[in-house]
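User: Could you check the structure of this?
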Amino acid sequence: MFTGIIQGQGEITSLRKNGTECRLAIRPLFTLTDVIDGESIAVNGACLSVESHSREGFTAYASAETLARTTLGTLLNGDLVNLERALALGDRLGGHLVSGHVDCLATVREVRPSGQSVCCRLEFPASLGPEVIAKGSVALDGISLTVNDCGPDFLEVNIIPDTQKRTTMRLWRPGTRVNMETDLIGKYVRSLLGPWSGLSGKDAGNDAATRTGAGLSRELLLRNGFI
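Assistant: Sure, the predicted C-alpha cells are below.
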C-alpha cells in the first residue's frame, strides 16, 4: 500500500529482457536507506518487489502482466521514474490510499501554464469514468493528485511547483502516456453498487441484476422494503 507521495526519482541503469518479462536496475537519485530484499517499491505507480539491492540501487522484476498494463515496458536506459516505498503503519497519509496496481494508461492531451502551476488534461478509457470524480483523488505515474475537472473519458489536474520539481511530471508533453490508478475506495463503492446501478467493473456481468438490465428503481426499493 502506498500514498502517492513521491519520495524521489530514480534512473533506469539496466533493462534485461527475458521474453515478455524484464528485470530493471534502478539507481535512486535521493537517499534511500535500509532497503530490504522483498520489500515493495512503487515505480511510476506500479508496485514492484525488490529482488536485490546495493549502494548503487536495486533490481526488480516486471512480469508480462505488469509490462502489458503499464508504461514500464517502454522505459529505456537513462529514463527517470518516480519512486515511493510502501506505507508503514503510523506514517502520515499525506496523499490517498494507492495500491500500486495500475488500472489503465492515460494520455496527456494538453499542458498549459496556470500561474506558477501547470494544468494537465489527460484522456483515459471511458470504462473507468465512474471511478473518477471532481475533487476526488487519482494516481498518475504514482503521484497522488486531486482531480480539478473530469468527464466520462478525461480529467484535469493541477501540478504545483514542488510536485514538478520532485517528480517526472515536468517532462510530460502532449502524447505522453502515464500509468493511472483510480481511487481505491471508489472502486469498492462502484463494485458494491454494481448489482443495483449496472455501473460495476469488469465482473459486473456476473451479477444477475446487470445481466437482466435491472437498475435502481422505485419498484426495486418497494420490493425490498426500503420505501
